[in-house]
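Q: Predict the bound structure with alpha-D-glucopyranose.
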Amino acid sequence: MSEQTIVEQAWEALEKSVIYYQGQPIGTIAASDPEVASLNYDQCFIRDFISSGLLYLIKGKPAIVRNFLEATLKLQPKTGQLDCSKPSRGLMPASFKIASLNGEEYLKADFGNHAIGRVAPADACLWWIILLRAYVISTQDFELVQRDDFQEGIRVSLELCLVTRFDMYPMVLVPDGASMIDRRMGLYGHPLDIQSLFYAALRASLELLVPNPANQTVIQAVCNRLPLLLRQLREDYWLDPDRLNVIYRYQVEEYGEEALNQFNIYSDSIPFYRLAKWIPEAGGYLAGNLGPSQLDCRFFSLGNLMAIIASLTTELQSHKILNLIELRWSDLISHMPMKLCYPALEDNDWRTVTGADPKNRPWSYHNGGSWPVLLWMLVAAAKKMNRGELAHHAIAIAERRLVQDQWPEYYDGPDGRLIGKESRKYQTWTITGYLLAKEIIANPDHLKLMTFDLDP
Ligand code: GLC
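A: Predicted complex:
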């Protein structure tokens, strides 16, 4: 099938996923698989819409993005309350759908209360800010972002992340399953995927917040937090052969400010021999999670790719991450770009860490499955760093399979060869992940919608 036919088919499928509210396009549903019960896949997920939104901005059709931003803003609670069954102030829903009452349409938000595991999404408000920035860059519609309700929306999201917390690290503390990986996967605490989005959202909000008295405190808080967050992530999450040597010989049980091993990581908890073999001399990456006596050395793609896109990593670190992807291609990409996390949790680890979750059994779904939506982030990261060949190669691999397999949500197996066991077909962000990757390659100028320059 020609490349052009694939793109045409993808667009056709995407158009079918658009949902309308009071006659206006407002979002895209997660999947439109005619063969399986939709469950909540007939809803518009905030995180899933990001690639749709970016694509519509690139195509000069910003109305759907504007409608989406306005509608979701209205769903966000603006007042604090002490009722645990209500969503917190500033939280954005995981998803919403159009319901009707007495013949009137209204939007029904799901803050995780209908999702498996009942976890509230920490990523939704961060993605929302990132998409709002892209909308403003693309349309130059400053009027929208300067409106009081938008300024308030940004402010309450930031306050939720910056103020309410039970620790004193610069990272944001979240429960397990609060991001794209919305089931238990050992991501309680300070998972990288959330920290990268947090960093990007903080950077974006500095561009979006009007410097007026109402915003003064929060702007100051963001400015204070950014350098600390940057340092902690670049230094303490970073893994490469040199860092491995340092961590291997860490002292433990150290007290006080001078402690090198700030998190009291015990050497025996880290698979040094495997890592020393796996990380190439020219490679490196940000670890998956960091907390008290915990350094999770799994490789998480979203966090690492977004770190490159947002310039959370230094130029050298960004190249090292891409070197790792290139040199460990068969582990991370193989037959489908790309693994959501590597390696999979197996045996007892799978049992204890995931709660023996059958959907997340080793090398399936979140636990070592391959997610085509990540293609756009891979291509954006590679193009940003002038590593176009890597991007082309990944797209060519995805192109061989996606149409013929009817745009599956994910693939299984260590080499990503099997269509995901419970994967839906016509998954919208699989389609948009591919289309967005193609647009970025065709015109790298679009990168300005998503990337950030090195340190502000
Ligand atoms: C799954 C994914 C989640 C996604 C949702 C809708 O729950 O884990 O990230 O938003 O499906 O596609």
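A: Residues 30, 45, 47-48, 180, 182 surround alpha-D-glucopyranose (CB under 6 Å).
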